[in-house]
Design goal:
Strand content: 15-25%
Distance between the termini: 39 Å
Radius of gyration: 14 Å
Order of helices and strands: HHEEHHHEHEHEHH
Structural class: alpha/beta
Shape: globular
Length: 151
């Protein structure tokens, strides 16, 4: 499968999105949606920038992918720098995305078990750069982080 060969590149693209979000004053979580070895949607957490309650990285990537048929989504892989929260996991399930590659889940573990229980292939890589980015952010901005995850 070609996407496995390029998985590192796609995770790096998600990480670039996370860094863009941080540079805009937001929460550094990024995602890319990949269909047949091509990025069709990229995004990052824009809750702060847009005053949004729903624009997490995965949601932004889905939004930026635009309207697609269900068959396209079912043939996609979501690459995200952080374990998907319940909202993002719900969107992944809703659109039938069958594989999710997670940069890290040490700073936050989302609904990976739910995804797996519904047949989604979830791979967690524990990427050191993803871990460092979130650890640093959470230490510097604990209240913003708590707001982002609903605490």
């Amino acid at each position: 499968m070609p996407e496995k060969d390029n998985a590192k590149d796609f995770l790096q693209a998600a990480l670039a999105e996370a860094k863009a979000g941080l540079s805009e004053g937001g929460v550094p979580i990024g995602a890319v949606l990949v269909h047949r070895d091509a990025i069709i949607g990229r995004g990052h957490n824009r809750r702060v920038q847009k005053g949004s309650v729903v624009l997490h990285g995965e949601m932004d990537a889905l939004e930026n992918a635009g309207r697609r048929s269900g068959s396209v989504y079912r043939d996609c892989v979501m690459y995200t720098t952080l374990s998907p929260c319940p909202m993002c996991s719900g969107a992944i399930l809703l659109y039938g995305i069958g594989r999710v590659v997670v940069g890290e889940n040490r700073t936050f573990r989302g609904d990976e078990d739910l995804l797996r229980s519904r047949g989604v292939d979830v791979e967690v890589v524990q990427d050191p750069e993803c871990i460092h980015l979130m650890t640093t952010f959470i230490t510097a901005h604990p209240e913003l982080w708590k707001e982002d995850i609903g605490i």
